[in-house]
Amino acid sequence: MAVAGTTGSGNGVAAQTRDALRRIEAALGQVGASLADVVRTRIYVTDISCWREVGNIHAEVFGGIRPAATMVEVSALITPGLLVEIEADAYLDADAYLDD
C-alpha cells in the first residue's frame, strides 16, 4: 500500500511532522494496516537544517519499526507554510488482508 504525500497542520516543522505521521497512521488503519507494516518513508522538507528534528520525531513515532527512510530538501511544497511532506509504503500480506 502506498500512502501518497501527506502533510500535517500546525506551527513549525515538529508539529507538522507529528500530524503528517498521525494522518499516515490513520490512513493505514483504514485498510487494517499499522505503522508496523511500513517498509519505507520518503520525507520532503523545505529546510534541510531541520533534518535532525524531523528525523527524531520519525524515530520516536516509529519506535523499533525502523522503515527505510529518505529525506530530501525541496524548494517548496504545494501550499505556502507547509514545511514537511511524507510518503509511506507499507507491505500488506494479501492473504491476511483478503481474509478480513
TrEMBL record:
Matches recorded under InterPro entries: RutC-like_sf, YjgF/YER057c/UK114
Pfam families documented for this protein: Ribonuc_L-PSP
SUPFAM superfamilies reported for this sequence: YjgF-like
PANTHER family membership: BLR7761 PROTEIN (PTHR43857), YJGH FAMILY PROTEIN (PTHR43857:SF1)
Record keyword Oxidoreductase present: yes
EC number, as in UniProt: 1.-.-.-
Source species of the chain: Mycobacterium attenuatum
Sorted UniProt keywords: Oxidoreductase
Listed name of the protein: Aminoacrylate peracid reductase RutC
MF GO annotations: oxidoreductase activity
Gene3D superfamilies attached to this UniProt entry: RutC-like
